[in-house]
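Quarterly update from the structural biology core.
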Amino acid sequence: MKKLFVLIGILGLIIYYSCYTQQTNINPREIIESMTTIDPEIRKYFPRWKVCETDLQIQIYQAFRILGYDEAKLNKTNIEILAAPRRNEYEPFDLLHLTCGEVSMSASEMQVNLSERLLSILAGGDPFANPNTWVDGKRDYCYSEIPPEVPVTASQAQAIINYLEPTNVTHSFTMSFFEQTLKFGDSGFWLKNSLGTDDIGYVFWSSGSSKITLKRPLYVNRDSKTSDKIPYLINAYLGGAYRISGGLNNKGTIFSWVPSQKLNQGPGGKLIAGLDFHMPFHPQFGVHLNMEFPLTSLKEESVDPTKYFSYKKINELNLEEYKVAPLLRSSGQFTFFYNLWLTKANPENYFRFDLGINYFEVREVYFKPSQFTHYFLIPTPEDESIVLNTHKPSEFADWIYAKFEYRNQSVWPFGFSLQYSNQIFLGKVYLPLFNWLYVEGRIAQVLRTAKPFENKTFFLISPVLRLTL
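Predicted structure, tokenized:
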């Protein structure tokens, strides 16, 4: 029995020594060549670039095609290289992954299937164009460097619905002239302050209103196929709107080039409530409801005339002028929406479509001067010759709400949206300057005869600060 224990002990020592010897003689190059997958969290710190040299694109594409890869998954214009970090700029890269469209080759597969000359050119070990101007380590072909923080491939381009309100991060903060958003940890809560009523085409201060809303998720998406894209099936919105008057007199300010405010929110606040409901059987499809309505009814009030926009009308009986102030009252939308990612494995291209009905109400009130410095807002004047109008949908085109949105996260995320509502075209576009700083532009164009409280065209550009953690 003792001999048996001794024999087992000796055998264990031999196995341990053998394993230790193998571990200490590991070749780092062999590890690199054997890598077939790379952790997504590590991948974003590795050197990456996209090949845009036509000749090299064709060679790589043909290599994948000849090897029998599905041509439907190949993309000649979307070729990405992942490499190990190098010690200095004069040595070639160690190539780890070569991706063409949706499929990839590991380092060992590249060594077997691609020519040594092609691999050396891609890694910067040999010249592609002019040997006389080439130096060691230089990639002298057309390529696009990918900054480490920028999402690009399936492991990086996250399937999120709103890039400025990302659901794939723990904390988020965005700030621009148009809106400011804040995400509360993992709770799913969002706090948002926005200027204007974009849903009816009144951008920035053109609606005379600003609002604060809290978004609260109510129902978790249990579908494993779509929960990464749409974490919650139901989101509720609740908040309030308050009146602003900053754009009434913008001459001599940094916003002097921006059209002035011509619409007012009435005295008292407004309640804002909304709901996004994603269908459990197909979460990409759903319905959206938004409602904004005043908390108080209109009554005669004394106001500061410098805080309200007003315009003149003619009394048809005595041809005398009188002033009216337009007040934005209720508005709302009920729409169907659909979210679409072109490629499930690599959600670089995102589309959203909204179609539904729109409602708005702008009411004129008599703007009567007093013997002091104040004016009176009178919703129902005693003088019947004073005509006050209520502007709301009166024809079919007024009721239509339609919106199209596109976002691209290939290298530098950018996006735009086109909206038709209240017979007003609203276009938005944002472009990156850095991965934390963007520039956004919004333009609203009235497609019918502009009402007295509308600017025919409203345009504004704003920097956008976007910080995530």
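The chain is about 15% helix and 40% strand.
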